[in-house]
Each structure stands twice: as C-alpha cells, then as structure tokens.
Specification:
The structure is a single chain. With 355 residues, the chain is α+β, with helices and mostly antiparallel strands. The protein folds into two domains: 4-229, 3-Layer(aba) Sandwich (Rossmann fold); 237-344, OB fold (Dihydrolipoamide Acetyltransferase, E2P), CATH 2.40.50.140. The chain is built from eight helices and 20 strands. The strands form four sheets. It has a six-stranded mixed β-sheet with strand order 6-7-8-3-9-10, with helices on both faces. The longest helix has 18 residues, at 166-183. The radius of gyration is 24 Å and the shape is elongated.
Length: 355
C-alpha cells in the first residue's frame, strides 16, 4: 500500500496536449475515481500512472519512489482493463497464477495467494473451469483476482464494468467497493459513469479537455460544483441551468425572475447562470409567483419527474411519487435560496454566496 503523488503531470502528443499538468495526491488506501466524458484525459492519466504512457513533463511518485521513468513491471501496480484479457486455453486457477509464475515466485506462495484471492472473490468453485464457461461478471471477478494476487501497492481500473449489463454493473460495483475496503490498497478507477463515481469514490477527480475541473468527495462536488461543466455533468437527472442577467438585485431570464441570495455580489447587468437540481425545486401551492406547466411526465416508481415550462424557461422538477399529475398539470414552484447555484456565464466559474 502506498500514496500516489502526481506533480504537474502532463502528456502531449506533438502539438496536441492530452493532459494539462495534473497535481494530485492519492492517499494510502484511498479510492479515487477519475470521471469525465470521452477524450477528457482520464484514461491517459491512468496509463501514465501505470507506465503504459510516458510522462511528457512532471513527476510521479508511488510511496517514497520516483517512478516517473520506471517500466510498468517495476512500479508494483496491478491493472484491470475494460476487456478481461484472460487466457482462453488456461483454467481460472492458471489464469490467476500466470503472472506470479512469470515472476518465478515460489509454488507454495503462488498457491497461497491464489487461494486467498479466490476466497475473497468467491471463485473457489470456478478454479478448474475455462473462461468460456464463465459469465461476464465471473470473468470480471477473475480479472480482479489476477490483480489481487499480485499484492500491489496500487490498483488501477480502466472502465472495468462497461461491458456488463446494468444489473450486473450494480452488483460488481458493490463487490469492488467491498474488495477495496477489505484489502485497504489504494485504488484509481476510471469511468465515464457518474453513478459509478458517486457510489464508489472516496474522492472524485472530474476532468474535461485534459484539465482537472474539480476534486472532492462525491457529495461535495454534487452540492458545490466548481463550475458550469461540473454542475451539468454531475447528477441524474442533470441540474437545471438557466442563462440570465442581474437586474436590480434579481436574476432575470426573460419573464423568469427570482431574488438573488443575500450575500451574493454580482454587478448589475452581468451575465450569470442559475443552477438548481430538479429534486431541490419545491412544489408549493401557496406560492403564486412562479407557475409551472408540465408537458412530460416520467413515473419512476418512488419518484415523479416532470419536465415543462415556468415563465418561458424549461425546467425539470423531481418530486415524490405523484399519481395525480399528467401532461398539462400546473404547479406553483418555490426555489429555496440555499439550494441555488450561480455561475459566471462567461468564465463558467461558481459565484460564491453565503450559503
């Protein structure tokens, strides 16, 4: 187990910069998730940690060692890829042991590590099968086991669940979380799935266009997104974002208008964007200033999601289950001041308030 430290780590392919100077410390035993859309640099960063991509500039430390220029085999890391990369002609036992045999480890130690990993991952009954006899979830557990037997200082996982169906992804997320807490090894996990990030991570690193946008605990980035990109990327359904201007202490977007929170400073007529999550908008029949008409109703079981228009602005409103709503239903809405987010529309950066 070890701390991982990236200092101004940068990757360029000729004139194209894929990763712009990442500074990050991953604590010993921490599970950090790199999250972002395709092409944001998250997998490239992971591959630089693994040694599969050379670092253009900056330094990388694992524990007390500077591993910036070391080969992957010398970094004491283990990686799990999107594809399982199992040897089809070998049994599961042989697949688990293969890497250890290549390192000429003692046979008794190999058997010990394979036995421990298979017990942790529930593979004991599968050890004499071939990969073709396993389900997708079982093969992913074998891939995790092959990393686990290495007893690495750091686990690196690159979108390991993307080939699984939705129900199996949920199950495997739980298994990965349990495994990481059980072994206590630092883990770096790459995904484009925000649900995976929110449910697995101790901290999330959100990336866009090779830049780190925000680093924080899941609820921290959810409750206080640093900029418009994070606000729109984190959350399902995503945050409502409305572009407008400051007019006499109020936020206005056409006919839509609400008071700015106390303590917020914004210049008159400056371009700002309002953000509020669908579940934070309250349906309040005693309020009459903001009328909302729903034109799309999604019954999600325990919750009802309504999409519609309020004073010319498109909004999504999430409420507890409402069997009485239908297309054309009208509500009065309330926007709690402590749930409002404001951003500079030009820079995208969060505007601080007292909340």
């Amino acid at each position: 187990m070890a701390q991982v430290k990236l200092s101004a780590v940068r990757k360029a392919y000729g004139a194209v910069i894929a990763v712009h100077g990442v500074d990050l410390v991953i604590d010993d035993g921490e599970l950090v998730v790199f999250l972002g859309p395709s092409g944001c640099g998250k997998s490239t960063t992971l591959r630089m940690i693994a040694g599969l991509e050379t670092i253009t500039s900056g330094t990388l430390h694992i524990g007390d060692r500077d591993v910036t220029a070391l080969e992957p085999k010398d970094r004491n890391i283990a990686m799990v890829f999107q594809n399982y990369a199992l040897y089809p002609h070998k049994t599961i036992r042989e697949n688990l042991a293969f890497g250890l045999r290549m390192h000429k480890m003692d046979r008794a130690e190999i058997e010990k590590r394979v036995g421990e990993a298979s017990s942790v991952l529930g593979l004991n009954e599968l050890l004499d099968r071939k990969p073709r006899q396993l389900s997708g979830g079982q093969m992913q557990r074998v891939a995790l086991g092959r990393a686990l037997v290495r007893e690495p200082e750091v686990f690196l996982l690159d979108e390991p669940l993307s080939n699984l169906d939705a129900k199996l992804r949920v199950k495997m997320r739980e298994e990965i979380a349990r495994l990481q807490k059980q072994v206590g090894t630092s883990m770096v996990y790459v995904t484009h799935d925000q649900v995976e990030a929110m449910t697995l991570a101790d901290r999330i690193v959100i990336m866009k266009d090779g830049h780190v946008q925000q680093v924080g605990a899941p609820l921290e980035v959810y409750d206080r997104p640093a900029n418009l990109f994070v606000a729109g990327f984190i959350g399902s359904p995503e945050m409502n974002l409305v572009e407008g201007r400051v007019v006499q202490g109020r936020f206005e977007a056409g006919e839509f208008s609400i008071d700015l929170p106390k303590g917020m400073t914004a210049e008159e007529n400056s371009a700002i964007s309002l953000g509020i999550r669908p579940e934070h908008i309250e349906i309040d029949d005693t309020a009459s200033d903001i009328a909302f008409t729903a034109d799309i109703i999604e019954q999600l079981g325990a919750q009802t999601l309504c999409a519609g228009t309020a004073q010319g602005v498109r909004l999504r409103v999430m409420t507890t289950r409402r069997d009485d709503v239908h297309r054309g239903s009208g509500f009065s809405l309330r926007f709690p001041a402590n749930r409002l987010h404001f951003f500079n529309t030009e820079t995208g950066n969060r505007i601080s308030t007292e909340h």
